[in-house]
Automatic annotation (TrEMBL):
Alphabetical keyword list: Pyridoxal phosphate
PANTHER family linked: PROLINE SYNTHETASE CO-TRANSCRIBED BACTERIAL HOMOLOG PROTEIN, PYRIDOXAL PHOSPHATE HOMEOSTASIS PROTEIN
HAMAP family attached to this UniProt entry: PLP_homeostasis
Domain of life: Bacteria
Species whose genome carries this gene: Streptosporangium sandarakinum
UniProt GO MF annotations: pyridoxal phosphate binding
Protein name per its UniProtKB record: Pyridoxal phosphate homeostasis protein
Domain Alanine racemase N-terminal: 34-228
């Protein structure tokens, strides 16, 4: 495919996503400026990230360190904000901190200390979101709701880290509106102790509308922008 065709394809995807966001904002009585669109570029090449940037996208999300690291370095000239959204092993903390501005998947104390140590070492400040497992099954990443307050306190009290707020993925097969309503309650509880932690990262291609209706501030959208991903071979 030529670059022009790909550019048009991505521009069309972006226009559709923006139209859906506008519609959901109208329905929820919210303003577009309250939302950050994070374009999830996993499995797609750095050239797509470049096209997204040319089309005005400022935030990019990736879920695997090796792939993210290569792309972030290749696109370092674009001044994008990089979001790490995948499950994260502590031994990858040093690498992730070298390019990520925001880590959405902080779900255990050992990860908090590893990220803090590496952020201080690198002289960086990394915004962290506490990921919540809304179905009570931490298998896909995320802390149990009852673990969130202690994790939030730990992030807020760790040098090199800034507590941004909370993140969740809607449970498979569940009602996303209900899940995101629960996430909003958890966010409100966190903000009682940490008033600045106002980020709610919720909503993907299939459930943006429900996320916007329930107070999301960050949408993580891949498929609707860039197309369906090929199954991952690991
Ligand atoms: C891949 C991914 C997304 C984007 O999902 P789409 O359905 O392609 O929009 C969002 N959040 C996380 C955590 C992901 O891994």
């Amino acid at each position: 495919m030529t670059d022009t065709t790909r550019r048009e394809e991505i521009a069309a995807g972006l226009a559709r996503v923006e139209a859906d966001i506008a519609e959901a904002c109208r329905a929820a009585g919210r303003r577009r400026e309250e939302l950050t669109l994070v374009a999830v570029s996993k499995t797609y090449p750095a050239s797509d990230v470049r096209l997204l940037a040319e089309l005005g996208v400022a935030d990019v999300g990736e879920n695997r360190d090796q792939e993210a690291s290569a792309k972030a370095h290749e696109c370092a000239d674009l001044g994008l904000t990089w979001h790490f959204i995948g499950q994260l092993q502590t031994n990858k903390a040093r690498s992730v901190v070298s390019y990520a501005d925001v880590v959405h998947s902080v779900d255990r104390l050992r990860l908090v200390s590893a990220l803090g140590r590496e952020a201080v070492r690198a002289g960086r400040e990394v915004t962290c979101l506490v990921q919540v497992a809304l179905d009570g099954d931490p298998g896909r990443g995320g802390a149990l709701p009852e673990e969130v307050p202690a994790l939030a306190d730990a992030v807020a009290g760790t040098g090199g880290l800034r507590l941004g707020g909370v993140m969740a993925v809607a449970p498979l097969g569940g009602d996303p509106a209900r899940a995101f309503a629960r996430l909003r309650e958890i966010s409100e509880a966190v903000r009682k102790t940490h008033p600045g932690a106002d980020v709610i990262s919720a909503g993907m291609s299939g459930d943006m509308t429900e996320a916007i209706a329930n107070g999301a501030t960050h949408l993580r959208v891949g498929t609707a922008l860039l197309g369906r991903r090929k199954p991952l071979v690991r």
